[in-house]
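Design a sequence for this backbone.
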């Protein structure tokens, strides 16, 4: 699948898992509208692979692999932070009745309702959003020093001028 903005790839999730299908594709970041608010900029794309299968208890699952480079905003310096994205996850498919009846074990941490029209782009975007760091930051000491040094210098020179004006008035 090659996603272009509003292009959707819809699968029958149970048929997809029953037949062990694989879907690979690329999603351009500008087309992931819910993710855009978390990004410094929306350059590039993410690559994904979704495989259908069954777990050890013969339950239908989707295995997701998503990778790419995201540009997040550092919460320390507010500059651009390159964030290598590497998501490997397995999602259990459950029927609406199974989810409502509470037939899930505690180990079944991530599940979605099985659907005849599952939008893969939305599923991939959900997984990316869930994987993002809460407060992305450069490593200690790796923030842009030039920007903060210039701001510190401007503040220091403003105070120096203020002190000089105060001396002149006395």
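Sequence:
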């Amino acid at each position: 699948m090659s996603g272009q903005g509003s292009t959707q790839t819809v699968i029958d999730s149970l048929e997809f898992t029953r037949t062990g299908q694989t879907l690979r594709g690329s999603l351009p970041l500008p087309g992931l509208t819910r993710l855009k608010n978390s990004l410094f900029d929306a350059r590039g794309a993410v690559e994904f692979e979704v495989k259908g299968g069954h777990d050890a208890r013969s339950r239908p699952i989707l295995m997701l692999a998503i990778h790419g480079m995201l540009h997040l905003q550092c919460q320390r310096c507010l500059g651009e932070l390159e964030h290598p994205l590497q998501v490997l996850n397995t999602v259990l498919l459950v029927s609406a009745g199974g989810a409502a009846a509470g037939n899930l074990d505690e180990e079944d941490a991530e599940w979605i309702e099985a659907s005849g029209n599952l939008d893969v782009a939305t599923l991939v975007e959900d997984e990316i959003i869930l994987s993002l760091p809460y407060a992305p930051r450069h490593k200690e000491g790796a923030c842009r020093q030039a920007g903060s040094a210039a701001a510190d210098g401007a503040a220091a020179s403003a105070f120096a001028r203020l002190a000089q004006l105060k001396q002149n008035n006395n």
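The mean pLDDT is 83.
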